[in-house]
Write a structure and sequence with these properties.
about 400 residues; alpha/beta; TIM Barrel; Hypothetical protein af1432; 2 domains; about 50% helix; elongated
């Protein structure tokens, strides 16, 4: 997963915020898409793959919006904290957009008018805006002072000079007292990359279908999420993101779903469908689910909670697929103390369980024998293999039906 991040500086040179940008690969200098797909991918990646705190910290986060998000056709799955919605200059500001932006501002969101162009209709949004972004090198310098004076007639509006490429551009900002600055002369966009498991698209569609029912079945929602490692990781990360507004510790997927609420899950599922990414292989999914299910089956032997054991097994499997350590994932997930201890130090009932599972997978019988009930894991292993194989095979059969 990739995301672009370009700093926005204040007049003293400190970073005031970041604009998040769509990037299809690590070499991309500029975005080649600015549509609903691009916006959806930026949102999903920033909030669930990277974690917004890692991308922008406590700074402001500017995200380009398309018409679908402004009018409510696509729902924003995050709250207004530290987020600024940029309205692109290409958007036709009609009554529907004005009404949608009015509702967003009333809900607490801040608005930035991107690359402001006079007499484009965007003047209608000035009373609602918190920021106006000007492409300073392309402004009419003879009229710049008057234009800035006009903007400052709206006391809640701050000016962001963008497209700055030279020291003369910075001097112009200083001369006119422009509050915020952005451009290559200060910093080029940085492309951030996160390793992740490609989401299982069919599971997203299943999840969306389950959530679209009038009385959504919580057990069914948890079952679908639990059967897809990518969905599980995103739900766990989302439950710890700024989208929730408060950090709580969870030890199971059910707790994370309840914490987020079915409304939030529904919104993320919609964005994941828009964010169309390649699937993981069936073998990868089967192996990851087998380990998670095996941990679930062995939990009672270690006096551990089965749901927490499933999460512990799945996190270690995901980390292995990503080529990282499970402990490195802990900071990104809202895990309970026993899960943290197990994943970072290998201690506690869950830690002992993970050591046994790891020993079994590596054929190291000398490290076995920690569990109550002995070393015979045949029944637990066979059940885990059946469950994971059937789960993935069922999804594949449904996928074939959809394709045909």
């Amino acid at each position: 997963m990739h995301i672009g991040r370009q700093p926005i500086f204040d007049a003293s040179g400190d970073i005031a915020g970041y604009e998040l940008l769509f990037r299809g690969n690590t070499q991309a200098v500029e975005a080649d898409r600015r549509d609903a797909y691009a916006t959806s991918q930026v949102i999903v990646n920033a909030f669930t793959e990277f974690g917004l705190d890692e991308v922008v910290g406590d700074r402001m986060c500017f995200i380009n919006m398309t018409r679908e998000f402004l009018t409510g056709e696509l729902i924003l799955p995050f709250g207004p904290e530290n987020v600024v919605l940029e309205i692109l200059e290409t958007i036709d500001v009609d009554d529907a957009v004005v009404a949608g932006v009015t509702n967003l501002v009333a809900a607490g969101y801040r608005i930035a008018l991107d690359d402001f162009v006079w007499q484009s209709g965007h003047e209608r949004l000035l009373p609602l805006a918190s920021y106006v972004k000007l492409d300073l090198p392309h402004c009419d310098l003879d009229r710049l002072a008057d234009q800035l004076a006009f903007f400052r007639g709206f006391p809640h509006v701050e000016i962001v000079a963008e497209g700055l490429e030279t020291l003369d551009d910075l001097a112009l900002c200083d001369r006119h007292g422009i509050e915020l600055r952005q451009g290559y002369v200060l910093s080029r966009p940085q492309v951030m990359t996160a390793a992740c498991i490609p989401p299982f698209k069919l599971r997203r569609l299943e999840l969306l279908g389950a959530l679209s029912e009038v009385d959504a079945d919580l057990d069914r929602v948890v079952e679908i999420i639990s059967s897809d490692p990518a969905l599980t990781m995103r739900v766990l990360r989302a439950s710890n993101s700024a989208a929730v507004g408060s950090i709580q510790r969870v030890s199971s997927i059910r707790q994370a779903v309840v914490l987020l609420g079915l409304g939030h899950i529904r919104r993320w599922a919609m964005l994941m469908v828009v964010d169309d990414v390649a699937e993981a292989t069936e073998a990868q999914l089967t192996n990851a689910l087998t380990r998670a299910r095996l941990c679930h089956n062995l939990a009672a032997r270690f006096d551990a909670d089965p749901d927490a054991a499933f999460v512990a097994g799945l996190i270690t499997a995901v980390a292995e697929l990503l080529g990282i350590t499970a402990s490195s994932m802990v900071n990104h997930l809202p895990l309970t103390a026993d899960l943290v201890a197990a994943l970072t130090r290998g201690i506690g009932p869950l830690g002992r369980m993970l050591r046994v599972v790891d020993a079994y997978e590596h054929g190291d019988m000398a490290r076995m024998g920690f569990a109550r009930g002995g070393n015979d894991l045949t029944g637990a292993v066979m059940d885990a293999l059946r469950w994971s194989t059937q789960t993935v095979a069922a999804a594949s059969r449904q996928q074939e039906l959809v394709v045909s």
